[in-house]
Design goal:
The protein is 51% helix and 9% strand. It is an alpha/beta fold.
């Protein structure tokens, strides 16, 4: 018998079967037609599985029937190689090739998910940690039990692909070895057809070339991505170590804001689409227009522009660190390198002056957050330290209005209560103005259920939100329809804006300076397949001198940036800000924005 004749062949009547044979043979002997059908079906499924792996795209928009009506050149070369190898080498090569196809398929599926959520492919060097974040998000969205089921299912699928793809290629290799002449002719015919289709530019009905070489291209791109990612680690470490403001003394930093309470606020997923998309813009634009009118009546003025975020659809901390550090932080490794060093951040600049107390309000942080010291924050309040006793709103641990209320109670209001009573700042440590880093999370995916505005005097410990939460929509219901998702996203941005504007109107003073912006655009299902990475940024102040310092920025008056407002990369903001509010002589160092 040939070396591997048993693989896929119909067994002969082997008398060594013992008692089974004596009783009429094995099940396989008694049902040869069924065995033959199963063998053919298994072979066909093996070929289909390999074909799907070779032709699977890494973007959902490319997943069309025409994508699979093609001839993969990798399959032709692979088959030719297996035909010329001796039995042991053939089986080893088939097993390795099958496992490789399984890995490639898993990576392509990860690419599809990352492209849909984050607008980019999966990086095999940096992005494994994000899978854990994804599971946490699912737990908040659909519950721990279902999220665990999804995680187990995803892991089982990955393992199944590795095993089944390996078995499939081994089976096909053995089959070709048993039918070498026919397999050789088939490979030659397919190779000739592939070459002719390439020369003639033959395309499928969907416009994609019939002659495919996508798998090899994807493998090459993966290899280049890994090499580039590893090289980026070393290159970025050198960039992060250099800083034009590193040696600037504190007494020459932020002199134009002395005595002001400065609040930097990020609104989750507040992107350009919220302002310009026909479905979402009417409500959001109305909130911004109304807010501009209200704040103007209260004595405030505002200027707005656009920043291009380093991230899209998620990974908010990359946007936060880019804005604060003046460095382009677009992956997890850069973030780790940055936060492990001493690069000066905007918040750190306020700390260096010694003229401000610095605090962070982080309702989205549920564990320890060692980055607080990197950002130069004297005090950080995470979700457990803000006193909230109400329900979570999916991923968001608390409504934005509550987070701002806690900020007022715990920090911002301390000075102002003393001012109201004595007419001057309180005694140390409250004698210093406050610099705050506030993250608002109510507009975080999945945008259901959503909180509602309540009277500031009714917020209390947050128990008031129990009824609001129960009456809200469920994520699974909202996510059945794309239009509904986009509508709820728009409503979430409106809520965050109303909370922040109402807070400033009620608790702001003539010394309050507010900078608020989005961290990134929402995922592609909301912002669109070809959306930019732009987010709005706004500076609000009561003192005209504060806005006069940025007159050269040419930002749009009001809370809504105009379509022709300047668009800057987010990493250029730190230097622009430190330069604008440094000594009027302009002697503070600055780096021209690219």
């Amino acid at each position: 018998m040939p070396d591997d004749a048993a693989a896929g062949d119909i067994p002969t009547n082997d008398t060594s079967a013992g008692d089974d044979t004596a009783a009429g043979g094995t099940w396989r002997d008694r049902h040869p037609a069924t065995v033959r059908t199963l063998a053919h079906a298994t072979t066909a499924l093996s070929a289909l599985l390999v074909l799907l792996a070779l032709l699977l795209p890494n973007q959902l928009t490319l997943l069309t029937p025409g994508q699979f009506a093609r001839i993969p050149v990798e399959g032709i070369f692979g088959a030719a190689l297996l035909l010329v190898l001796p039995p042991k080498a053939r089986r080893a090569a088939a097993a390795v090739a099958g496992a490789g196809l399984g890995v490639l398929t898993v990576l392509n599926l990860l690419d599809i998910g990352f492209n849909e959520a984050l607008g980019r492919g999966f990086n095999p060097v940096y992005d494994w940690i994000l899978l854990d974040d994804g599971e946490s998000f699912l737990q908040d969205s659909i519950g721990p039990t279902k999220a665990t089921g999804v995680a187990i299912g995803a892991l089982a699928l990955a393992l199944a692909l590795l095993i089944l793809m390996t078995l499939a290629v081994v089976r096909l290799g053995n089959l070709m070895a048993r039918h070498g002449a026919a397999a050789t002719r088939a490979v030659l015919v397919l190779g000739t057809v592939w070459t002719a289709c390439t020369a003639l530019g033959v395309q499928a009905t969907t416009g994609v070339p019939v002659a495919a070489e996508s798998a090899a291209g994807l493998v090459q791109n993966r290899a280049q991505q890994v090499r580039a990612s590893l090289a980026d680690e070393q290159a970025f470490a050198k960039v992060a170590a250099a800083d034009t403001f590193r040696d600037t003394p504190g007494n020459r930093l932020l002199t134009g804001l002395r005595g002001k309470d400065v609040i930097f606020t990020f609104i989750e997923s507040y992107g350009r689409s919220a302002i310009e998309d026909p479905l979402m813009a009417p409500g959001v634009d109305a909130a911004l227009a109304d807010g501009t009118t209200q704040l103007r009546a209260a004595g405030y003025a505002a200027r707005s522009g656009w920043l291009t975020s380093s991230t899209y659809g998620g990974s908010s901390w990359l946007g936060h660190s880019t804005f604060m550090s003046g460095l382009w932080i677009d992956n997890q490794q850069r973030y780790r390198t940055l936060t492990a060093g001493d690069h000066l951040t905007l918040t750190g600049a306020f700390e260096r002056t010694g003229a401000w107390r610095t605090v962070g309000i982080m309702p989205g942080v549920t564990k320890g957050w060692p980055e607080g010291s990197f950002y130069g924050l004297d005090r950080v309040y995470n979700s457990r330290e803000l006193g909230y006793k109400g329900p979570k709103f999916s991923w968001s641990t608390m409504p934005d209005q509550y987070a701002l209320s806690a900020f007022e109670r715990l920090e911002h209001g301390r000075n102002h209560r003393a001012e109201e009573q004595t007419g001057q700042r309180a005694n140390p440590p409250d004698s210093k103005p406050l610099m705050s880093f506030v993250i608002l999370t109510s507009s975080h995916n999945p945008w259901a259920p959503l909180p509602k505005m309540v009277g500031w005097d009714k917020i209390g410990d947050g128990s008031v939100y129990n009824a609001i939460n129960k009456a809200g929509k469920k994520p699974v219901d909202v996510w059945k329809d794309t239009a509904r998702i986009r509508t709820e996203y728009g409503r979430s941005i409106q809520y965050s804006l109303h909370s922040l504007i109402s807070y400033l109107k009620k608790y702001g003073t003539k010394n309050t300076v507010l900078v608020f912006l989005g961290d990134h655009q929402p995922l592609a299902k909301v912002s669109g397949e070809h959306a930019s990475r732009d987010v709005p940024v706004t500076l609000v102040a009561h003192d005209p001198a504060v806005l006069k310092r940025i007159s050269g920025w040419h930002w749009t008056p009001g809370l809504m940036p105009g379509p022709k407002a300047p668009v800057w990369r987010m990493d250029t903001f730190r230097n622009r800000f430190l330069t604008a509010y440094g000594p009027q002589s302009g002697s503070a160092p600055s780096r021209p924005a690219p």
